[in-house]
Amino acid sequence: MNDQGRFFVERKEWIFLGAFALLKILLHLFTSSGYGYFRDELYYIVCTENPAFGYVDHPPFSIWLLSLVRLVLGDSLLAIRSLPAVLGGLTVFVLGLMVREFGGNRFAQAMAMLTWIASPIPLAINHIYSMNSLDFFIWATLALIFLLLLKQPSFRLWMVFGVLLGIGLMNKVSLFWLGIGVVAGLLLTRQRRQFLTPAPWIAAGIALLLFLPYLLWNMNHDWATLEFMRNARASKMQSVAPLQFFLRQLMMMQPYVVIISLLGIVYTFLPKGMKDYRPLAWYFIAIMIYLISQKQTKVYYLAPVYLPVLALGSVWVGEMLNKASLRWVQIVVLLLILSQGIIAAPFGIPVLPPEKHISYAKKFGVSPGSEEKKQTAKLPQYYADMFGWQNLAETVARVYNILPDEDKKQSLIYAGNYGEASAIKFFGNKYNLPVVMSSHNNYWIWGIPDYEVTTYIVVGGGPVSLRQIFNEVTLIELTQCKYCMPYEANLGIYVCRGLKSELDKLWEDLKNFQ
Questions:
Q1: Is the per-residue pLDDT at 208 higher than 80?
Q2: pLDDT-derived band of residue 243, with 50, 70 and 90 as boundaries?
Q3: 347, 379, 403 — which closes off a domain?
Q4: Summary mean pLDDT of the chain
Q5: What is residue 482's DSSP assignment?
Q6: Which of 128, 171, 446, 453 sits 20 to 30 Å CA-CA off 84?
Q7: What pTM was computed for the model?
Q8: Do 425 and 482 fall within a single domain?
Q9: CB of 350 closer than 8 Å to CB of 386
């Protein structure tokens, strides 16, 4: 099959695959206003107002995209969450194309796409705006290109692979893991002969060239991202044992995804299986081993790696049930996946009010969790971080408004982390608040104001620690938040004066990259 014919899909197939993609998109659009803005969404919005070729905790491509979204659609929850919804739908569509390329029938395509739609991690990823929605879509598309290269090596496809990999790295650096999987998949099979051609090497060069602006940004900022990663592993991320990692996969990806994917891996090693696609099995195994070896890892990191082996497993199940007498079994399988998806949906998208979600989770024995070293709330961290932000900004605004006019002119707001700072900046625009400052991640790089400051409104901390920095510390208000993370509840809002050290000298010690 030539390059031009590879992506030929009949109209009926487009409609069939598109229907599942549309289901995924609508599911997210209809639930987009559940709860509130997520912590990182607010941070990303502030990042769009500070354009750069890099940020401490992420590359810039997702910020550039969000700038375009804000320009065209605005800042509402529906507006900024429309792109992750569409990207989620496109990921489902690409998964269906993978099953089709493997020769899977309609049932296999439906099973793979429905299984992915019903999985809590993809539901959660595509509910909010972050780099992860685009990351999942790029993983899916690169996996599709990789399987096409396994069918028929093509210089042109390798070039497309390189360009997309470079764009993906400018979105999220963890896409380097895909490179580990591709290299392992080729080296451990007869497909290693592709390394004897210049195409994969040129593709790698293209990817690194596109990634170069972020590398140069890091060089100019003392390799801030590497410092961020080291600190996050040491003080923020939990250590996960191999068995625990696997069990969490079963819970957070749901058993159907894991089981069907494992079948896909096995299928490539059977004598009459899909041996030509064994590189995709090694691709999954190599990345999984790498993630487990890191110990400080997160369960969702493995999620996009499932896509090609999920497609392979769906093909095998489709072949086993491809008999007229077993059509009823096909229907039962799809209904089981659908019912599992309905049960799991509240754990990925906020379809229930907070109190009902808490009760619902208890019925299934699911306690609120966090993949970081943080005290948990009534809600899991993913949901808890959608509460309290507007109230925080309003509380800070009340404190600011009681200041004398002269103090207002020489004041700033200091928040302990990027979520608090971004919330005050975003929701506080209508209150004409002064500069919002933080020493957390990219806020530290944005630095201190260029005017003389005499009055500091400080969010959080405590009187003992603040009196080590200021001569005068006054607690004005406490924030109120029922469902947010414990460290974001009952925050003190202080008015502080008489800084004991020069702010620019103090700033280096306050740096907090994690």
A1: yes
A2: confident
A3: 347
A4: 94
A5: S
A6: 446
A7: 0.94
A8: yes
A9: yes
Residue 370 lies in a domain: no
Torsion of CA 108, 112, 118, 121, to 10 degrees: 170
Domain closes at, from 347, 376, 406: 347
Return the minimum-mean-pLDDT range out of 132-141, 236-245, 291-300, 309-318.
236-245
pLDDT > 90 fraction of the chain, expressed in percent and rounded: 85
Q: Which domain holds residue 496?
A: 389-510
User: Is residue 154 a part of any domain in this protein?
Assistant: yes
Q: Give residue 333's region: left, alpha or beta (phi > 0; psi -120 to 50).
A: alpha
| Least confident range of 93-97, 212-216, 296-300 | 296-300
H/E run at residue 471: strand 470-478
Q: Do 318 and 427 lie in a common domain? A: no
Q: How many helices (H) and strands (E) does the chain have?
A: 24, 5
Tell me: do 325 and 460 sit in the same domain: no
pLDDT tens, position by position, 216-240: 999 999 999 999 999 988 887 777 8
Query: 140: Cβ–Cβ under 8 A, 6 or more apart, which residues?
Result: 90, 91, 94, 95, 98, 304, 307
Query: Is there a single domain that holds both residue 340 and residue 397?
Result: no
Distance CA 61, CA 50 (A): 13
Which residues, 6 or more positions from 383, have their beta carbon under 8 angstroms from its beta carbon? 35, 350, 354, 357, 483
Whether 20 is in a domain gets the answer yes
Outline where DSSP puts E strands in 409-454.
411-415, 436-437
Q: Are residues 340 and 430 in the same domain?
A: no
Place of tokens 């900024």: 80
Cα–Cα distances in angstroms (integers) from residue 275 to residues 96, 185, 284, in the given order: 21, 12, 15
332 and 439 inside one domain: no
* Total count of domains within the chain: 2
